[in-house]
Write a structure and sequence with these properties.
This protein is an alpha/beta fold. Helices cover 32% and strands 23% of the residues. The protein binds xanthosine-5'-monophosphate (XMP). Xanthosine-5'-monophosphate binds next to loops.
Length: 524
């Protein structure tokens, strides 16, 4: 059985996942309310698990299955005997009704997808405080089946044209259920409903970053004792916050290894080294391995081959330098909560590898190291909040993500030092433009890619034959899907002019307006 990982001194809420695309958003909304919660797939939630987890409330998520089908997913019946509030959402509502004595029917004319409006019945409950104040509420529906009769003890609090039992509850037992998704932004007042639910369940909102920091430090000290820890520092937010937190806990028992593979942005290596070694006084090995990486990448143009070479070299180099630390027993990583949530799959098939992401996977076993992962319970924006709590500069915390393989995957085709230098200069101007226009924080990620094509231009009275580049800027929540950022034409024109005037080697600038999917954020 998987052990619950929450610190015991927090009230905790259990989200049982039935495979909805938006289950993570339930956790996001609850974390925003300072409520500690964990998502676990329904297959894992046994009676023993429930007893060990000891939740203060339970939420049953949505999911793609139909409760009418044989063998459809269910929570254990003991969920309803814990004596704690339970909220069912969409599929969670239907499974709750089916298990407690109501009935569910197949869609027919009642399927609803997208925006719908729920009206209140006369029943007004604490669950609905702040709801229906100006009439009906907009909600987001996504259901084929619907509840056709509610279980004994339940009353109707809200209805929509397609869902007569849009909001139902049994106030005596504190069981509630909604047909729509309160966790998504298209249900504008949904967070309020979730807040009412957790307040009803007695949650006081004790999950704060200050408390988390103290606890994490205590846990790191308990885990590590007086052993040595090594940490691969990439200069990204996650590994930086992990390093600062661990350093605060165990001081110089921690050594960071920063691998410069020659594929970093302008000034990046100096920035990272100055901050961690000089500002934080952290033992830091600056492994300058540019020659090694660029040498091995010479003449390579296939994207996957590039990624594999970089991944392998990174592990070799890390291992070599980590050996210098001597006797390290732990490896620190900036693993986040979305990386550890086990996904619920009904199709069962393996997913296609789009790109081989490189990380230090495999190292712990190879080197006989145990993992220290102090950010395992946090979402990205919580890591940023923790970074602020730890005093990391705002400019560092708000940085756009940067991929492990660095500029290699922004240089389609063969990588040359000349191309990398041109790319660095263009990228620095582009980011400078974005900052000057106050757009940096609105954008998930922005960068330049240098294209493997030269084009003809005219500058002054002369002919030029130089590289073309592409500007990329996307908005995204998690990097899984993305849309291009709608810069003004003035911004694009001004930026293109600056790049062409200031960077020798580029005479044409394009803007990439591909969303993800069908594109990806990086070019390789
Ligand atoms: P794609 O290009 O797959 O990128 O749409 C999604 C996000 O992941 C980042 N990315 C990586 N990050 N190692 C990383 O640490 C990698 O190998 C890697 N490849 C892509 C990318 O920058 C974007 O934020």
């Amino acid at each position: 059985m998987k052990q619950a990982s929450a610190p015991p001194d927090h009230q905790r809420l259990l989200i049982i996942d039935f495979g909805s695309q938006v289950t993570q958003l339930i956790a996001r909304r609850l974390r925003e309310l300072n409520v500690y919660c964990e998502i676990h797939p329904y297959q894992k939630v046994t009676d023993a698990f429930l007893a060990a987890f000891s939740p203060g409330a339970v939420i049953l998520s949505g999911g793609p299955a139909s409760v009418i089908d044989q063998g459809s997913p269910r929570p254990p019946a003991s969920v309803f005997a814990l004596g704690v509030p339970v909220l069912g959402i969409c599929y969670g509502q239907q499974v709750m009704m089916q298990m407690l004595g109501g009935t569910v029917e197949r869609g027919g004319g009642n399927a609803e997808f997208g925006r719908a409006y729920v009206s209140a019945t006369e029943q007004r409950m604490p669950l609905l405080e702040g709801w229906f104040e100006s009439g009906r509420e907009q909600v987001w529906m996504s259901h084929g089946d619907h509840v056709s009769a509610i279980a004994p003890g339940f009353e109707v609090y809200g209805t929509s044209p397609g869902a007569p039992y849009a909001i139902i509850g049994d106030a005596a037992r504190n069981f509630f259920a909604v047909q729509f998704h309160p966790e998504v932004h298209h249900t504008p007042n949904g967070a309020r409903l979730l807040e009412n639910f957790v307040r009803l369940a007695g949650f006081t909102g004790d999950w704060t970053m200050g408390a988390y920091r103290e606890e994490a430090i205590r846990k790191i000290r308990d885990q590590v004792g007086d052993a040595k820890v090594i940490c691969g520092l990439s200069g990204g937010v996650d590994s930086s916050v992990a390093a600062v937190l661990i350093h605060e806990a165990i001081g110089d028992q921690l050594t960071c290894v920063f691998v410069d593979h020659g594929l970093l942005r302008q000034g990046e290596a100096e920035e990272v080294v100055t901050m961690f070694r000089d500002h934080y006084n952290m033992p830091l090995i600056h492994a300058d391995e540019q020659e090694l990486f660029l040498g091995e990448l010479d003449g390579v143009s296939d994207p996957e081959t590039k990624r594999k070479i970089i991944g392998k070299l990174f592990i070799d180099v890390f291992q070599k330098h980590a050996g210098d630390v001597g006797g390290a027993k732990f490896l620190a990583q900036g693993t986040l909560y979305p990386d550890v949530i086990e996904s619920v799959s009904f199709s069962g098939g393996p997913s296609v590898t789009i790109k081989s992401h490189h990380n230090v996977g495999g190292l712990p076993e190879k080197m006989g190291l145990k993992l220290v992962e102090p950010l395992r319970e946090l979402f990205k924006d919580e890591v940023r909040a923790l970074g602020r709590e730890l005093g990391l500069p705002a400019s560092f915390i708000g940085r756009h993500p940067f991929p492990g393989p660095g500029l290699a995957i922004r240089c389609p085709g063969e990588i040359t030092r000349q191309k990398l230098e041109i790319l660095r200069q263009a990228d620095a101007i582009y980011i400078d433009q974005i900052r000057k226009h106050g757009l940096y924080d609105e954008i998930w990620q922005a960068f330049v890619a240098i294209l493997p094509v030269k084009t003809v231009g005219v500058m002054g009275d002369g002919r030029t034959y130089d590289y073309a580049c592409a500007l990329r800027a996307v908005t995204s929540i998690d990097g899984m899907t993305a849309d291009y950022y709608p810069f003004s034409h003035d911004f694009l024109g001004e930026t293109a002019t600056r790049i062409i005037n200031e960077v020798a080697g580029i005479n044409r600038v394009t803007y990439d307006i591909t969303s993800k999917p069908p594109g990806t954020i990086e070019w390789e």
